[in-house]
Predict the 3D structure of the following.
Amino acid sequence: MLYWCPLLALLGAPLCLCQASFEDEPDSGRYAIEGRIFPLSDYQTSQANWQANTRIHVNGGEFIGFVKKDGSFTVHNVPSGSYVLEVLNPEYTFEPVRVEINSKGKYRARKVNYIQPTQVIQVPYPLKMKALAKTRYFQLREQWRITDFIFNPMVLMMVLPLVLVMLLPKMMNDPETKKEIDQIQSLTNFEMGDMTDKLSNFLAGPSTAQQNKKPQKSKKRQ
Amino acid sequence: MLKILTLPCFLFIIRSSLASNLEHDGWANIKLEHCLVPSASPVFTERGNITIQSLRLGQAIVKQNPLTEQEKNQLRDLAAKNQFYQIRSTVVASDGAENTFLSTIKACMLAESELDDKLSVSLDYTGRVIGVTLLIASSSTCEGAFVPLSKLKQFTTHVYVRHSDVGPIPNTQSYIEKLEREKEARERGEVKDNRSILAKYWMYIVPVVILLMVSSMANPEAAAGNGGGAGR
Amino acid sequence: MTNLGHFITLCATILSAHAIYEDQVGKFDWKRSFIGKVKHAQFDTKRLIVTTHENIIASLSPKTGEIQWRQLMEDPQEHQPQLLHLDKDAVTVSGGKSRFYVRGWDAPTGSLLWEWPLVLDRPGDSFWLLQGDLLVHVLAIKGSHMEVTQFSVKTGEVRAKTRKIPETWVSGDKCVTANPYFVCVFNGQLFWLDVVNEGGRASSQPIQGGPDCNLLEFDGPKPAVLLVRQNSAKIVELGGAVLPHEVAPNAVSIGSSVFQLEANLDNLDKLVRVKSFDLVSGRESSVEIDYPLGLGGPYIVSGQCRGPACELLLSSTDHALTLVRLPEGRVSWTREEALSNIISVEFFELPVSDLEASIETEFTDNDVITMFTRRISTQTKQLVNLVSGQFGSTRDDFGLHRIIVVATAVGKLFGIDTLRNGSIVWTYRLPNVKPVMLLVQRTARHAPLPAQCVLLAQDVTTGGGVLFAFDPISGESRGLDRLSYRIKQAFVAPNEDEEHLKPVIVIGADDSVRVFPERGPKTVAYVYTIDQSLVQGYRLEPDGLKPVWNLNLGVCDLVGVSTRPVTERVHSQGRVLHDRSVHYKYVNPNLIALATLSEDPVHKSVLNVFLVDGVTGFVVYSTSHKKAKGPVHLVHSENWLVYTFFNERFRRTEIVATELYEGSIQSNSTVFSSFAISQLPEVKTESYILPANPVSMSVTLTERGITNKFLLVGTSSGSVVEIPWMLLQPRFADMPCGPEESCFPYMPEIAIPPEATINYNQTLARIRKIAVAPAKLESTSHVLVHGLDLFYTRVAPSKTFDLLKEDFDHRLIVLVLVGLVVASYVTKYLAAKKALRQAWK
């Protein structure tokens, strides 16, 4: 028997997350994170107003910063601690940076490494944020090419039988071509025999091969 | 009647490794009461007492009275009418905290199992009891069942103390090791490659060379030219 | 090494396969941006700069109302805009309590010009005045004194030392600014002090009306305030006289004219009238405006006049923003800012067209001739429709065209079309209610019966429950029920009545049970309530609620509850292992996933996750993470649970996948009952690092559950990324894992490539929730992301395997077929010719 259990909203108990509040902390422990954004060279042309479209998020938006016209930014009112600073821009990807401010107000910036949090690769502070690349959101469509068309199985299916059905019987019926084919066959037979002959010769006497090789080299030297 | 159960692995799969993640061991005493007459305001009568001496080990002493004739009849009626059997367990923990838990099962399932039930005591990570649930091990339910009184004699209760798992953490260690191993392997591999570009692919190169030579020999003019060159 | 290489290529193919093509942008997705309820507004010649209660500064086009630029400042819960001044640049002061930010914005582009923070040593009521480049901050300490500080607005440099002015009349809540004065009403007297120019002395003036007077700002030609008593106000010029005009409290002065709104009862088409009078000439005028129906009561926020032509910006009780042009009284544009705060979302299929519905009745008649004529007429109609290309609001073949019904926090309901760039089909405003959730009583599948939806809400004044039934397709009301008691729980029962209407069961705060509609079938169901840490399970019987189980989770904060979507179907019963054996899934429809955070003296805060059976109260699985912090997001689907939290020890977000299996034997393949437990489910878990800050999480839902599952994670950076469940699925420790087993080798960090962003470069502000609904097409899910912005798209986790590819070459296949046909005829002809020739030989 199947029991059904209505799984319900809680009208009486709103879910709320207690966010850490720093209201009670002394304000002497407030610092500002500073840095500058270096856009890619094609930035200016593709986004004339990139400063307005770029934001700085510290710890996922707990603190925010805006970018001035010259690319510099300041995130104010940050207490001491460890923070991940991200530069958000819809068109460009930036690498996030971990900024650590100790209780004495000393700054250290390093690369973000979630897998090895203890590994420290320092980066200069004040931050210099360079755009890594243009963000590729889209898949590229395959281009239409004539070779694709020709090697398309359906096209092959259409063309090859046509060739076989139409041309071969005609060729076979024509007495001259028949002769020619015979000739070709005999020729190839002869050549094949020749080839095997030579191959056996070559295998039997490697010295002859060497003799053959040396003159080749000397000829090149000339 | 006293009975010490050392957790036979009946149908339940109990992972023994879990028993050890409690930081502080403690004990708990559970007073079991059940309700045998369905009503809007249920009346609970005593069923027994369970003492879990060590929450870490999960050892329990189960003390339950045999059912009286009246209780047997009531239970049979419950089962026959496909009603619910409810227990109330009052848990007194080692720190003196008292909590009451309800649990309800189908009476017919209890009767069909001949009063062989399981009591699951769930703990949180500190070892506090968060819930006590009565269960019947069965793969199907029933819609009322008539069970003779002779089969309803005595509860044979198994107590399972269920601990909270320790949450998994991302396994970065083995990944880092793997990356390092790969790095080493690559380094070694690269050195080898540098030494032996020819040696590595000789099996492809030689046939190509032979074929080239053979074809050049097959060409009589080229061969003649070569011969001429040698003559000079 | 090879394994890893494999993995990377596999991963790349899988992930990139789901990205969209650039030419698909906007083809089936749309985004609408909002700014929230407007607080301040200032006109410029080319733009309209506003700040809103969402702590946003934005520039709107006065012609169309479109957002030219928008900047989101700090979290609106703690920070609010305090001042907006538009001169050449826009200046904002925002903040709350003791922390403020003063910023200057470039009005044409919206980029930051300068910024400085201000931190007060003590909290108080702050008032701001801006004159030239002098910013004056007045901190009012009630009943004792005020502290006046002057700053240079661009640098934050203190111009004059903080002056402490001891004045007992400083009250805080009954004070306003009137450049250059700071004005308070106290003990039936009006006090004011020039805070810009030093050496000013407090002046006072008695007022009539007693203590229940209120002060409002009034930006007149001379420094003045509005003195409000009940519903009328008087303009008091400071140091001058009380003007004789009775004005409405929403009166606004533009130049020397005073504008105010009035209800217009004479003309039912134009319900609102703008009255204005000139303070200098005393000339009065009145214009009726064609204020759109369905909007709430308006008030004037701001305006500008150029000669006789004026533009008034109106906001309304439902947060709609309207620009009215005078003297025509024409509404230029309306922005439905209610959509910036959505509470509940439901997707509705459209009804079948009348034509298709008429087929149902076509064969009821016995008369052959009428049947025949009807058949012919419907077919001609169908032909006409096909030729004219009219489809209208009717169901399409794949269920891709839907109506999204949303309930907003202000109590306004919207019907939004998934196609046509999210245009609003209908709106319905319910005054004074706080919506809680939408419940679907009947879908549009039961033609000719229309769909029905119920909005569950709370009355703002009484707190009693409100049930509003409506047609989700047209937005027509089907009746409003105002209950006299509070609602504790409400849900839709699964069993339909004879009209296919699922009854809504309402449990009052006093545990009384009522069914809507009342003739609805009685039902047995299990419900649960969570009161802080006490989880209580009930069985709902025809005669009331009976408690059946309870849990006590201890002292903790409940941070997440998740249950499986009611409509979800599990297609595959197990997971096929490499040796072709099947590991059966533990699929319990009654599971409730709970997450709590509890304080711990040793481990800071501990995250506990419980999987509880909703019928028996049995804790199927529980786990705990030490040193964990919120936000916690839970998603429970099929036989698995995924949750995210912040690990304080390693300072990273982790995502944990938990999967439940029955094992190699399925205990009961036909039915599931929570009471029959033959074995405990086997639990597999795996944890990963998520290099993002999730703000919302959801999972794709398809019609039959055959399609792979994708997690949709909304991040704080404004993107919604899809993560294949396969990437998270716990691995079996002792089994090979590779492409052959369709298994990815374990990687501790989940890679989020940019191609996985379903909203590509359309950054979404303050994502709150992701609503998902299945389409009729198995491969496809509808997704609506809401927060400050609204974004709709369709996702196909296993690609659109049930549809021809969009770039499928129809011409080629036609060409080939034609070619083959032609070729066969040609060969036939040639063969005949040859046969003839041979016969002649």
Notes: The beta strands of chain B are 2-5, 28-35, 45-54, 59-64, 84-93, 98-106, 116-123, 129-137, 156-162, 165-166. The longest strand of chain B covers residues 45-54. The helical segments of chain B are 69-80, 107-112, 172-195, 197-200, 202-218, 220-231.
